[in-house]
Every structure is written in C-alpha cells, then in structure tokens.
Amino acid sequence: MSAPSSLEALIEALRCLPGVGPKSAQRMAYYLLQRDRQGAARLGQALTHSLQVLRNCARCNNYTEDEVCERCQSPRRDATQLCVVESPADLNMMEQTHVYQGLYFCLMGRIAPLDGVGPRELKLDRLLDRACDGVVKEVILATNFTNEGEATAHYLGELLRARGLSVSRIARGLPVGSELEHTDAGTIAQALVERRPL
Amino acid sequence: MSAPSSLEALIEALRCLPGVGPKSAQRMAYYLLQRDRQGAARLGQALTHSLQVLRNCARCNNYTEDEVCERCQSPRRDATQLCVVESPADLNMMEQTHVYQGLYFCLMGRIAPLDGVGPRELKLDRLLDRACDGVVKEVILATNFTNEGEATAHYLGELLRARGLSVSRIARGLPVGSELEHTDAGTIAQALVERRPL
Hints:
Two copies of one chain form a homodimer.
Chain A: H1 5-14, H2 22-35, H3 37-53, E1 55-56, E2 63-64, H4 70-73, E3 78-85, H5 88-96, E4 102-106, H6 124-131, E5 138-141, H7 147-161, E6 166-169, H8 185-193, E7 196-197
Parallel strand pairs in A: 3-4, 3-5, 5-6
Antiparallel strand pairs in A: 1-2, 6-7
Helix pairs in contact in A: 1-2, 2-3
C-alpha cells in the first residue's frame, strides 16, 4: 500500500538538493507531477546534460563547457592579476562591480576544518601552479570575511608570498561575518579598490 | 563572459521547483555540480523515469505505476466508504491513523477561485463517477479546514447528497486554518471517528 517505487525514488532523489528535507521533497514531487510536468522534464534533461558537458576550467577552476573557459582565453583581461574567490557566485559578484579586469581562480570551497576541508581537499596545488605561471604578478584574495574565509586567506597569503608573489586582500569594507554573495556591488567595488598588501 | 549555456539552463530549470528563486537555484546548481554529482545524476534519472511511469490511478486519482493502484485493487479495503482528500500527502496522513479501512479519492487540489481553480479544473466529474459506482455508500470529506478546503467540502457535499449518497465530514477536531499534513495522527484519528453527517 506504500507509494509507487518510482515516486519514492523521486522523493528520495530530491533530497540531494541543499536544504530540502523529507517534507519539502514530498511537496516538490507532488507539485512537479501534478502542476509542472514540463518543468520537471526540462529539469531532468538539464541535470543529465549539464553533468555531461560542464567541467572545471583548467585555468580558473570555474564551470565551463570547454577545456579553458572564455574568460581565461580572453586577450582583454589583465593576466598579471589573479583574484581568488570561494565560489562561482562570488566570482559573478566581482564581475558585476566592473572594476576588475584581471583573471580569477575559483576555490570551490574554503578551508573548513570542522567540515573536514583542509588544504588538500581544496586542491590548493592547482592554485599554486596557476599563480606561478610566470605571468601573474599579484594575487588578490577575495574569500569571504567569515572565519573560514579569513583563515583561507591567511593560509593562502603565507603560501603565495613564499613563492615570491605579491599578495593582497580586498579591503574590509564589507561587514565582518558577511558574505560576498549578499553584498551590493558598490561595497564590493570599494573593498577591491582599497585592497591592502598582506 | 557569461556562464556556460548548460549551466544557465540548469539554473533556470531548477526554478520550476516550488519556492525556489534565482539565488536558491544558483546555489543548488553549484552545490550539485561541485558536491553531489551522483545525487544530481540520480535526480535527473528519477525525474525522467517517474514522468514516464507514474500516472493517476483510474479509480482514486493518486499516483501509481498501474492502471489501478494497489490500494484500490485490494479486497481488504471497505469499498462502501470513500474518503476524499486534497493531496497524496493528506492521504498518507489518513493512512497513518490506521483507523480508516475504506478507499480514497484524491482531488489533487481544492476549489480556489483566486487561483483560477473551479469545479471544472478539479475534474470533479471523475469523483462523481467514482462515488456513484453503486458500491460506495458513504463519502467522507477530508479536505483541509482552510477556507478553500471548507468551500470544497461544502460544494462536494451538495453535489454528492443530490446523488443520494450519505456524506460526512471529518470532525473539526483539527484547529481551524490548519492543514492535515502538519497535524499529528492522533488528532486526525479523532476527527475521523467523530465525523458528522452533512
């Protein structure tokens, strides 16, 4: 008398989404089946397709469909500056300031010992290889001003300075404890301009 | 320089989920791509598969992989009682009381003029056909005690009594304005036992 197995599988599968518990997953499944089968079909295809074609850019680690993403290939960007961000969402916010013309490296995370994410899990070797390409002169650390983001910036600062690179940190114009993703572009722009040497 | 089209398509597709706006969709996409590709693959398959195999039971309108669901086919259920609920989630809550042995009809909605859902959109003809099979003696209305659920019960009561059926409403043991899905099974059981003729 229980629910059909395919329905149970769908509800269970929806729980992979961040912040979605059993009740929400059930609601979502019923909603999709009854009210938006077209949207559900599109989502199913988008998931399958994006997993096939999206990978991490060999240079900036952001998502791309190519070996190296469009931004990293662009001759218009200043290849002597490398800005390190935690996530693609943060990268998008940096771009929206229209103040920065350099390149990026996207960590896809932060050092978070409580979550078991250390330097090794973050694959910081790739960042070091990228930063030491001989072209990059300055690395701008734009991790969040949370405890974990600060710790990551501190750790990266030591590492990169030891390789003879000039390292800076975006200014603490952002409120302590806040996150880039939820800050207005003007504040981020100021913090970028007022970056200080580490 | 914008995001790859497959990533944008994924973010856009995630917005079909109820309560998911642009920011949440972006977060979900990044989370799935970076932290749970396996879960994302499973979700993609579950969506595609469930849309193929799940349909509405010809008798109770609940989701099933067969023409008629297991419950409607069971000889153990009392076919003289038909309980009308708004959603499969509500049906599941009724079952958890272990008090009811009859069959169900799942409306997959409620009369909600503000949302453009009238008797025609709910396909109440199917319920009438089902209730007038000659076997059903009593229809128990277990729509929610919200304004819309009450209006639906009132409307259905008139319709079904006109066909010579005995119609009852689960007791208002549930607080007015509350919803079945969020009520404990004991309260629902009492409301079922104390149902009153309409």
